[in-house]
Amino acid sequence: MKFLKTIVVAGLVAASTSAFAADITGAGATFPFPVYSKWADAYKKETGNGLNYQSIGSGAGIKQIQAKTVTFGATDAPLKAEQLEKDGLVQWPMVMGAIVPVVNLEGIASGELVLSGEVLGDIYLGKVTKWDDAAIAKLNPKLKLPSAAITVVRRSDGSGTTFNFTDYLSKASAEWKTKVGTGTAVEWPVGVGAKGNEGVAGNVGQTKNAIGYVEYAYAKQNKLTYTGMINKAGKTVQPTVAAFQAAASNADWAKAPGYYVILTDQPGDASWPITAATFILMHKTPVDKAASAEAVKFFKWSFEKGAKMAEELDYIPMPEPVVKLIEKTWSADIKS
Question: How far is CA 246 from CA 19, 77, 162, in A?
Fold first, then answer.
């Protein structure tokens, strides 16, 4: 129900606007939906132009832009340069954020429980099945952990959040890499499936002793208990904007074809290990050039005026030099 409601809210962004502006449609990743909604609402108030963005998951967003049924697609799993070329698409990062493990454990507050990538992988492999397992207890000697079965919640849809989460697990756990690997959809060894970040957040919130993974804004909005993590440097870190920025600071966007950069498991004492960018996909030669030009105006406005709104939701705006590169990409590659 929560997922359907989000689609309706997305549709309302385009209400009471001109027929022309309503033709600007986007679909895809649920990861950036909170910030895209906030930007769209502010943009409509300022310009009168609306935006209809459907939060349906990265996999579905990629399919819709490939099928030319939307003005833009959105994905947290970037396409490689050869795929972009094949589909006649342009790709760029729009904003950065982070994925956090979330739990529903009585008496345990946000940040108190600490997990490592290896232990998180073992939970999702079905090897660690109880909260008082020795592997979790060793990382949390001061916590009173319940002797209860862990309910594992994961995405059921094709998801960029899953892509980044499984990419991280593949880097942190050799067994995960061998047995499951990285993908927008994988053969999950265990777990209850839920659709979208919204669905996972709702499921964990309603299920005692559950664990899931969501974009940080969803954890905050749903008042879910997030965990701390042990990062690549062996340091315990909490999900904060400073920790997300520390991970993002390693990205070399200028040298990445199609801006293909994965921000998981970055080095640095302060880096949050499951940081991610979210990307926009548009056709180089759009079917509706007017709608395409209007969409680019929205993205330009979002870069220029949306940084503070992004930060309020704990996303990380793209650095100014990267924005300049992206604007050159628009001019060179999109014929609108």
Answer: 43, 21, 22
Please, what is the end-to-end C-alpha distance for the chain in angstroms? 38
Contact present, 91 and 84 (Cβ < 8 Å): yes
**In this structure, what is the dihedral angle of CA atoms 330, 10, 240, 186, given to the nearest 10 degrees?**
-80
- Which pLDDT belongs to residue 16? 33
For every residue of 17-47, DSSP letters joined together read S-HHHHT-EEEE-STTHHHHHHHHHHHHHHH
Q: Between the CA atoms of 162, 167, 247 and 220, what dihedral angle is there, to the nearest 10 degrees?
A: 20
- Cβ atoms of 298 and 43 closer than 8 Å: yes
CB 248 within 8 A of CB 96: yes
Q: Does residue 152 contact residue 173 with C-beta atoms inside 8 Å?
A: no
What pLDDT score does 14 carry?
36
**Total-model pTM:** 0.90
DSSP character at residue 57? -
As a whole number, the mean pLDDT across the chain is 92
Q: Work out whether strand 114-116 and strand 228-230 pair parallel, antiparallel, or are unpaired.
A: parallel
Gap between the Cα atoms of 197 and 292, Å rounded: 27
**25 Cβ contact list (under 8 Å, min separation 6):** 51, 52, 53, 54, 69, 70, 71, 72, 291
pLDDT at site 23 = 65
Using one digit for the tens of pLDDT, what is the confidence trace for 220-251? 989 999 999 999 999 999 999 999 999 999 89
